[in-house]
Amino acid sequence: MSRRPRHTTAETRQAIFDAASGLFDTVGYSNTSMADIAAQAGMSSANVYKHFPNKAAIIHFIAEHHFQEIERDLGPLDLARPVEEQILADVLHLARRLSLDGTPQILDVLASTVFDEPPVLRSFRGRLAARFAAVFAAGVARGELAPGDPVASGQTVVEALMAFTDPLLLVRRLTTEPGFDAEGLARRLVKLLVAGLKHLP
């Protein structure tokens, strides 16, 4: 009797990812059970629970994948580029990725079901703050910005740009505010924030 081939943890989690993503997209998050995900993935419910304690853990895992995709699409930083141009390019990418290219269904689910900031979103925003800090450090080094703490500036700007650095908030605004001009708001906010960084006390 041949033994069933063993799968690595990564392969099993990917199978659960694929099964859950498909079910959430076709029948909806609330209509999908852990047993449904297990059946779609071709494994036992016990095996699914071994990797994820509940549906919330699965949806956070899927969301992290989407956040990483968004970050990869930002591309490498050009630290020789003027600060306002680089930050605006990043913020516009976030806005366009969600508003022009369509909102990933998983973010719709998160936006409608999650009220406390999930850990995957905190991690995403932390990585954006580090990216912005590198831009600000380069700006300070060449005299474009006033001397200051680039790390603190990165964290502050991420908070000030919450409408774009929090994909769940952006999804809510795009779906509840017809005519919301994400790009226009992004341009105004970035211009104002960078002007402030040029004249820190």
How would you describe this structure to a colleague?
The protein is an all-alpha fold and 201 residues long. The chain folds into two domains: 45 residues, Homeodomain-like (Arc Repressor Mutant, subunit A, Orthogonal Bundle), CATH 1.10.10; 136 residues, Tetracycline Repressor, domain 2. Helix content is 71%, strand content 0%. It has eleven helices and no strands. α4 packs parallel to α7. The longest helix has 23 residues. It is elongated, with a radius of gyration of 20 Å. 30% of the residues are buried. The model has no long low-confidence stretch (mean pLDDT 85). GO terms for molecular function: DNA-binding transcription factor activity; transcription cis-regulatory region binding. Pfam families: TetR_C_27 (PF17935), TetR_N (PF00440). It comes from Methyloraptor flagellatus. This is TetR/AcrR family transcriptional regulator. InterPro entries: Homeodomain-like_sf, HTH-type_TetR-like_transc_reg, HTH_TetR, Tet_transcr_reg_TetR-rel_C_sf, TetR_C_27.
